[in-house]
Amino acid sequence: MKTSYGFTLVELLLVMVLVAVLTTIAAIVYPKYTVGARVSEAVVGMKAIILSQKVEKMKGQYYSADSPVIFRSKGIELETKYFDFSTNPNGASGFQVIATGTSAFDAPGDTIKFDKTDGQEGMWSVGESNRMITLDMISNGV
Q: Is 106 exposed, middle or buried (0-12, 13-18, 19+ CB in 10 A)?
């Protein structure tokens, strides 16, 4: 009786096909997860700015047009690797916070917006020409 050691060619081919299928699935799914994580990071930054604006309104009756230096002193960075943030106050009636994807982001120029008008909760939206960021990504991060 002959004893066999090792794997047959069919077994090795089966393992190679399985690894190829798993690699293909990972290559398709991975970019979606990275974009989602970066959008969540942007939403967290925007929430910090929103909170800062609400505090300024309670202090001085107006929404603030803080510069990057003032935001930095509050622990808020307006420029990150993947997004640049801007704020557009409208005096006592409201403000807008915008996050724009930088060149390091998967879709540079994609935007996330938050509009707040006094007496209303505020509304999240995405740019009309966005290629990767969807409102569902923001809803999951909010």
A: middle
Helices (H) and strands (E) in the chain, counts: 3, 4
What confidence tens digit (pLDDT) does each residue in 94-138 have?
889 999 999 998 889 999 999 988 777 888 988 888 888 888 887
Residue 92 lies in a domain: yes
CB distance 107 to 101 below 8 Å: yes
pTM: 0.76
Domain that holds residue 19: 9-141
What does the alpha-carbon distance between residue 114 and residue 127 come to, in Å, rounded to a whole number?
Answer: 11
Residue 4 lies in a domain: no
Q: What is the tally of structural domains in the chain?
A: 1
23 in a structural domain: yes
CA-CA distance, 67 to 49, in Å (whole number)? 12
